[in-house]
Amino acid sequence: MSGPSAHNVADLLTRVAAQHGSRAALVTQDATRTWAEVDATTSRVAAALQQRGVTRGARVVLVLPTGAEFVTAYLGVLRAGGVAVPLSTEYTPGELARLIGRTEAKVVVAAGSALTAVRQAVAGVADALAADDMGGRTVPLLVVVGTTLPGEVAYADLETFDGVPAPHEQGAEDTAAMLFTSGSSADPRAALLSHRALVSNLDQLMALEPTPLTADDVMLAVLPMFHVYGLNTVLGQALATGACLVLQERFEVDETLALVASQGVTIMPAAPPMLLALSEVDGLESALQGVRYIVSGAAALPAPLQEELTERTGVTIHQGYGLTEAAPVVTTTLASTPKPGSVGRPLPGSQIMLVDDDGEPVQEGDPGEVVVRGPNLFSGYWPGDVEGPDPEGWWRTGDVAFVDEDGDLHLADRIKDIVIVNGFNVYPREVEEALVEHPGIAAAAVVSVPDRRTGEAVKAVVVPADGHELTTQDVAAHCRERLARFKRPTQVEIAPELPRTSIGKVARGRLRDAAAREADKKLAGLA
After folding, report:
1. What is the CATH number of domain 9-20+33-192?
2. Which residues 6+ apart lie within 8 Å of 121 measured at CB?
3. Rg (the chain; Cα; Å)
4. Measured distance CA(446)–CA(85) in Å, rounded
5. Which of the listed CATH numbers 3.40.50.300, 3.90.950.10, 3.40.190.120, 3.30.300.30 matches domain 418-523?
6. 3-state secondary structure at position 303
7. Contact 384/404 with Cβ under 8 angstroms?
8. pLDDT tens digits, 433-447
9. Which ranges of 448-524 would DSSP assign to H, the alpha helix?
10. Selection from 51, 3, 15 nearest residue 208 by Cα
11. Which position among 10, 38, 192, 495 has the lowest Cβ density within 10 Å, counted as fewest Cβ atoms?
């Protein structure tokens, strides 16, 4: 199959249906859909959305779990000329109401466990519009997968609509998706990903040698598709190649491994918490015997975990580095050689540079902020396409990394996560990697806490491994052997688990907030 270049992401579906129409596209617990069936359903959904006012540039919010309805709704929005706004199914009604209101969504499509929260959110938007008397603004239409209430539309009615989508004037630079990301800001902002950015990233992946995915592959799709990793790296690559997707709403160790075996999964996109859970399964080797490789992304994969899984199963584990704003892949070990700690080299057509605070390139071997340039970059943040790439096409990521002697990238941390102790930079990831070398520590996260003597100090939150009795004294002794004095945690908290986002990243902001509240209590004499 030739490269995926297209003006509209939905054009990829048109082409894959023409070339592989009779082949399995989406496998769910209930049914198997061919590419021709997915294409036909998508067209009906697109036509139905147009009938309900979705025109070029209209925003359609999707609050859907990973599943066939997400795929046809997302592609239906794009085929209708609209802009897809996928939101987390874990958002509260208040969070949903704010984001739905901010995007001025025309339609909201929702399902499953998120439906109650979405209904409350849409009602909240209606109340706000009525109170503010906003002329021209209308309450978004709620489309429901499942049983509807009065005033709602059943998604099944869109899937069976008798009509074809009308053509529309849309170019590669039109926005395809608005994806909310906190980035370096506390308040979530919507990164505007054009059709050009999304398709370019797929072009770049398909240009790797050997090609990482083919029409003969079967790929597990359990990552949330409201996240760019599941949206473009998983779904997008299937559209680009004709590979079959085995869809699962959420990761459950036993059920997931049963699917992998029964459906002949060959490629497993994953996040580190998934791999940690898999490492605790007896007989994992036989469960993964048909898997060609695993690719880990969204968060740092501890080197000991990667080494253990590779040694046990013989399955190659690749890592990648990406951002929502890069649609998302920037580097991958598919472009080099997998090794613990490395996130590989840039994709074809992407460039990276490491710079200091003044934007000047750092000395060879020194850490610096990652600056990226390539056709897969976003247009800016909504509204106004602000803070996008500079006039020369470069965009500062806020991530700190270094390049090793082989030319492979190693991430250190986010700039905002760096702890400055007596003027020395401490990279939380370095401390976390040292911590998880302790056999009694399953996971660790490091944040900054205020310190009267050093300005800032290191706090570590650690999760004991199963069957281990862990004490703060154990942790301190371990750190004395592995870390310079200024890098050692001055506070250690032992917790049953780390707070995580839906994609598996440690929710470091929650840990920072908790540490700040504790510090305030101490200052006030309350703790």
Report:
1. 3.40.50.980
2. 93, 94, 96, 97, 100, 108
3. 23
4. 32
5. 3.30.300.30
6. helix
7. no
8. 899 999 999 999 999
9. 472-482, 508-523
10. 3
11. 495
